[in-house]
Amino acid sequence: MIDNLILGFQTALTLENVLWCFVGVLLGTVIGLLPGLGSTTGVAVLLPITFTLEPVTALIMLAGIYYGAQYGGTITSVLISTPGEAASVVTTLDGYQMATRGRAGAALAISAIGSFIAAIISLALLIALAPPLADVALQFGPVEMFAIMILGLVIVVTFQGGAFVRGAMMAVAGLLVATVGISPGTSEERFTFGNINLLSGIPFVEVMIGLFALGEVLYQIRMGAAKPIRARFKDMVITRKDVTSSMPAILRGSGIGFGLGILPGAGSTLASFMAYGIERRVSRNRAQFGKGAIEGVASPESANNAAANANFVPTLALGIPGGATTAVLLGAFTIFGLQPGPLLFETQPDLVWGLLVSFFIGNVLLLVLNLPLAPVFAQMLRIPYGYLYPIIMLTSLVGAYSVSNNMFSVWLVFVFGLLGYLLKEFDLPSAPFVLGLVLGPLFEKSLVQTSAIGQGDLTVVFRSPIALTVFALAVAAVVLPKVVAMLRSRRRRTKVDAS
Amino acid sequence: MKSRITAAAIAVVSVAALASCSSAAGQPTSPDGGFQPSDVRIVVPFAAGGGSDTSGRAIASALEDTTGATITVENREGGSGAVGYSYFLSQEGNGNYLLASETALLALPLTTEVDFDYTTFTPIMKLGDDYTLMVVPADSEFETCTDVVDAARSDGVVAAVSGAVSLDEVVFTLIEQDQDVEFDRVPFEGGSEVIAGLLGGQVEVGSLNPSEVLGQLESGDLRALCALSDERYQYEELADIPTAIEQGIDVSFAQFRGFIAPGGITDEAREYWIAAAKEFAESDAYTTYIEENLMQANAVYADEFVDYLEQNSADLEAVVGK
Fold this sequence. Notes:
The structure holds two protein chains of two kinds.
Chain A: H1 2-12, H2 15-33, H3 39-46, H4 55-80, H5 91-100, H6 104-138, H7 142-158, H8 164-177, E1 181-182, E2 189-190, H9 204-223, H10 233-236, H11 240-261, H12 267-282, H13 295-310, H14 312-318, H15 324-335, H16 344-347, H17 349-378, H18 385-404, H19 407-425, H20 431-453, H21 465-498
Antiparallel strand pairs in A: 1-2
Chain B: H1 2-25, E1 40-44, H2 51-67, E2 71-75, H3 82-89, E3 97-102, H4 104-111, E4 122-130, E5 133-137, H5 145-154, E6 158-161, H6 167-179, E7 184-187, H7 191-199, E8 205-208, H8 210-219, E9 222-227, E10 255-261, H9 267-282, H10 284-292, E11 296-301, H11 302-320
Parallel strand pairs in B: 1-2, 1-3, 6-7, 6-8
Antiparallel strand pairs in B: 3-10, 4-10, 4-11, 5-8, 5-9
C-alpha cells in the first residue's frame, strides 16, 4: 500500500506529468464552463492531441479534464443560471439565488472547497478500497438499478416541497421526452418521424442549453431593464461561518456521491440531485433552500465531484466504465495499447497509482486555481446585461453546434429555449425535467432488463434484498414527511385541547 | 434582385471555369494522370474511443503513410451509426472522403428506415473479422457450449445481448436456429455492460469479442467456453478455446471492420484507394492493429468485399428479418 503510493508519487510528480495535469484541469475548467462542451465531449475531442504523449501522461491529462470540468460546470450555474454540465443543473437552484443576493463569490468558493474535500475523501476510499468496492458495485444489477432510479425520481420530485405536483409533472415530461429515439431493449424507432437526427434521442446537452441559457435570456428580456447585480466585495469573500455551516452538507454530499458513483451507469447527475434532495430534508438550514442557501450549493457540488472520482472504481478495478466520460477514457486505454480489466492494478501499477496520485495533485491545483478566482469570476455579473446576454447566446449556440457539428442541435436549442422561457413564465421547475430526461433511458433499460430477468414476472424485484431496501427508502421519502407533519399537527392539537 | 444576378453570374463563371478545367485536364490529377487525394476525411460513425474509432484512426494513420495525404478523422456519432452513414451519403462522388465501416452498414438498412445500404457506397477494403467467444462467470457450471445448449433445452439459460441487432444477438439467434432451442435474453448496451452483468451473476452467458473480454479471461473472472468462429484463434491466449463447430454447434459469425468510399466516385479514385489499401495490408501498422484487437486478419478488397457484404447481409436478414 505505502509502496504503491510511493510509486504513484514517483510517477505523478515528474515535471512533465504535473504540467500536463495542470493543462488538463485548466482545460477541464474551461470546458465545464462552456455550455455544450461537457467533460465527455471534452475528453473525446482532446483525445487525439494526447496520442504523442506517454500513456500515463496522456491519461493524467484526460482525467484532469474530467474532474476539472466538474469544477468549471459550477461557475456558470451560479453566475448566469446556466449549467455547463448536467451534474451542475441542481446547483443553479440555490447558486443563482445566492448570486442575485450578491453572494456569487461565496457560492463559487464553497463549491471549490466542497469539491476539494469530496475529492480527497473519495480518493482516499478509492485508493484503499477500489477492488472490494467494485465487487459491491457488481451486486447492483438491473433489478437494483431499477430501484435506484425510482428512488432518484422520487427524491427529486418531492424535494420541491409544496410544489410536489409541479415537480412530478416536469419529471414525467422529461421521462416522456426521453422516449424519443431507438428504444433500449427492442431497438424500435419511436417518435422520430423519419428524422435520423432523432434516432439517438433528444440529446440533453442541447436541452440544457436551451432550457437554462436561452430560457433565462428570453425571460430576462421579457422582464426588461434588469440591472447588473451590485455586489460589495465584503459579500464576495467566503466567511468562516459559511464553511462551518456547510461542512455537514459537504460530508453528506461526498458520501452520497461516492456511493452512487461506484455504480456503473448511475453517474454524477443523479448523485447531485439526490444529495440536494436529501440535504433539503435534513439540513439545519432547510427553510432557506431554494432561496440561496449555501448548503444547497455545497451538497450537490461535493456529490458530483465524489461521484466523478468514484466512477473510477469500476473503471480501474473491473475495466467497466462507470459513466459516459470514463467510457471514453477506457477507450483511450485501449488506444494506448493498455488492456483494461481486473489485472490493470497488477500489470500496470505505475500507471494506475500514478493516475490516482495525480488526482490529488489535480484537485489541489483546482482549489488553488478556483478559490482566489471565485470573487474575480463573480465580477462578471457587473457586466451590463446588454453585453452579457448576447455573449451568453453566442456561446450557447456555438456550444450547441459543436456538440455534433450539426445545425439540428441549434434548432433544438431554440425549441427548448422557448420551452425554458414558458416554464419560467408559468413557474414550473426545469430541474426535474432534466433529471427525467437523463434518467429516462437508464430507467427504461433497467425496467426492460428487470422484466426480462423475471420473464415478465415483476415480483422479481421483491427477491432482491438490496432492491427492497432501496424501495423502502423511496416509500419513506414520500410518506415520512407527511407522517411527521401529521404527528406534529396532532401534538399541537392535543396541546391545545389540554390547555 | 441585384444579388441574384451576381450569384447567377458567379455560377456561370465558375461552371465555365470548371468546364475549361475538365477539358484541359479532367479530374484533379497526379503527374501520371490518375487520381490524387487531397485533404482526405475519414468519417467514423461512432464516438471517439470506441472500436470503430480505433479502427478509423488505425486506417487513417496507415493510409497517411502509404499515400502521403493528410487524413483527418471525423467522428459523427448518433443513431447507432445512422447519422454518420447518412452524412457520408451526402458526399457522393467525393473521392476524398472515406468511412470506417462495420456491421452497422448492413444492420441499419435491415432494421431502420435509412436511405442507404451497402450498394449505395463503394466498398474498398475489409480489414479483418472480429468473432465472438461464448463466456460464462468463473464459477459457472457450464464447461462447453454444448452444456449451455442442453441447459437452454431443459431449464432455460439467461443470455445477455448487447442490442437487438448486435453481433451477439445474431450469434445467439443462429445457435437457436441451428440447435432448435431458445435463450432467455436480457438486453444490455454494449460489451462492458454485459461483462458487469456476468460478473454480478445477473446473467449466465454472454457472447463477446475477444478484445472486450481478454482482461477478465486473463484474471480468471470469466471463462470462455467456445469461439463462434470457423477456426480456432492463432493467438496464444485464445488458442486453447475450441470452436463451437468442434462442439457440434454449426455456428460462426463475425463482425467485419473495413473502410468504404462514397458512391459515384471515379474509377481512378476507386483504383487509387484499392491500391493504397493493399499497401496498407502489407504494412506493420496493419498487423499491429489486427493483433492488438485480437481479430482474424482476412483482408479482401473491392468486388470480393462486395460479395462478402452480400452474403453477410443475407445471413443478417435471416436473423433480424423474422
